[in-house]
TrEMBL record:
Short name of any one Pfam family annotated for the protein: HhH-GPD
NCBIfam families reported in the protein's UniProt record: nth
InterPro entries from the UniProt entry: DNA_glycosylase, Endonuclease-III-like_CS2, Endonuclease3_FeS-loop_motif, Endouclease-III_FeS-bd_BS, HhH-GPD_domain, HhH_base_excis_C, Nth
Biased composition (Polar residues): 1-15
Protein name (record): Endonuclease III
Organism: Streptomyces chengmaiensis
Functional description taken from the UniProt entry: DNA repair enzyme that has both DNA N-glycosylase activity and AP-lyase activity. The DNA N-glycosylase activity releases various damaged pyrimidines from DNA by cleaving the N-glycosidic bond, leaving an AP (apurinic/apyrimidinic) site. The AP-lyase activity cleaves the phosphodiester bond 3' to the AP site by a beta-elimination, leaving a 3'-terminal unsaturated sugar and a product with a terminal 5'-phosphate.
Catalytic activity: 2'-deoxyribonucleotide-(2'-deoxyribose 5'-phosphate)-2'-deoxyribonucleotide-DNA = a 3'-end 2'-deoxyribonucleotide-(2,3-dehydro-2,3-deoxyribose 5'-phosphate)-DNA + a 5'-end 5'-phospho-2'-deoxyribonucleoside-DNA + H(+)
EC number(s) from the headed UniProt entry: 4.2.99.18
Residues that, per the record, bind [4Fe-4S] cluster: C221, C228, C231, C237
Family indicated by similarity: Belongs to the Nth/MutY family.
Length: 287
């Protein structure tokens, strides 16, 4: 763990650095664009030190598996998807297999991820399109990916960034919330957020920036109770104080490896410092 991690999210002896001193001063001049860009890039650099192991939290072994897992991840957790996909890929390892699936059988396997009828329709549809139009391979361009049923820009960027190494910004719920809290944009529409953030950071940073921001949103800067008092970038954040500022109480809000809990991946990368996720519990009331 780096010094910065220790200073913010680690042991109790080191409190977070001073929060943004401008917070709450109503007479402050508006931040210039140059200052905002510098602050944004510093947030990215500091998050890189806190989360050097930031990674996609979906388990996958090839572009097809990542595409399917990303479609399944809508409206559910990556953990739930990771607990579901081993059985799915064992039964339908290729687009050809999935395109030929009996819908009810596929629905039953993916039921724990929710919205399973719509998702099954997308998976069978996109698998048929891969089989018929792309020789059974996942295409590596945004233009082609978004022609697949159930695949929008967010899914396409996840696949491009993580299976093809094409830089992309993933504006999911965490990313949008955090960049608005940081006052890097006030846009709500994901495409507009994407465009404004893309103008702030070099292209080479886009994919890892997305992972770091999403990691931060899942672990520290939660939607309802951000752990401001345990936040390593509080000194750069104009929204410090939106959440719990008491360091001890804030520490209890930390999630996943920062909270001593398992991560979301059943097979996390070797540098992941936390525990792998548990396999699926016995099926019961999931749905
Ligand atoms: S946890 Fe609080 S201080 Fe940290 S980024 Fe979120 S709102 Fe800002």
């Amino acid at each position: 763990m780096s010094a910065k991690q220790n200073s913010a999210v680690g042991e109790q002896s080191s409190p977070p650095r001073s929060p943004n001193p401008s917070k709450g001063k109503k007479s402050d001049k508006p931040e210039s664009r140059l200052a905002m860009v510098r602050r944004a890039r510093r947030i990215n650099r500091e998050l890189a030190e806190v989360f050097p192991y930031a990674h996609p939290e979906l388990d996958f072994e090839n572009p097809f598996e990542l595409l399917v897992a990303t479609v399944l991840s809508a409206q559910t957790t990556d953990l739930r998807v990771n607990q579901t996909t081993p059985a799915l890929f064992a039964r339908y390892p290729t687009p050809e297999d999935m395109a030929a699936a009996v819908p009810e059988e596929l629905e039953e396997i993916i039921r724990p991820t929710g919205f399973f009828r719509a998702k099954a329709k997308s998976l069978i549809g996109l698998s048929a399109a891969l089989r018929d139009n792309y020789g059974g391979e996942v295409p590596g361009t945004l233009r082609d990916l978004v022609t697949l049923p159930g695949v929008g820009r967010k899914t396409a960027f996840v696949v491009l960034g993580n299976a093809f190494g094409v830089p992309g910004i993933t504006v999911d719920t965490h990313f949008g919330r955090l960049v608005r809290r940081w006052k890097l944009t006030d846009q709500e529409d994901p495409e507009k957020v994407e465009a404004e953030i893309a103008a702030i950071f070099p292209k080479s940073e886009w994919t890892m920036l997305s992972h770091r921001v999403i990691f931060h949103g899942r672990r520290i800067c939660h939607a309802r109770k951000p752990a401001c008092g345990a936040c390593p970038i509080a000194h750069l954040c104009p929204s410090y104080g939106e959440g719990e500022t008491d360091p001890e109480k804030a520490k209890k809000l930390l999630k996943y490896e920062l909270g001593g809990q398992p991560g979301q991946r059943l097979k996390p990368p070797p540098d992941y410092p936390g525990k792998p996720a548990p396999p699926a519990p016995a099926l019961g009331a999931a749905g």
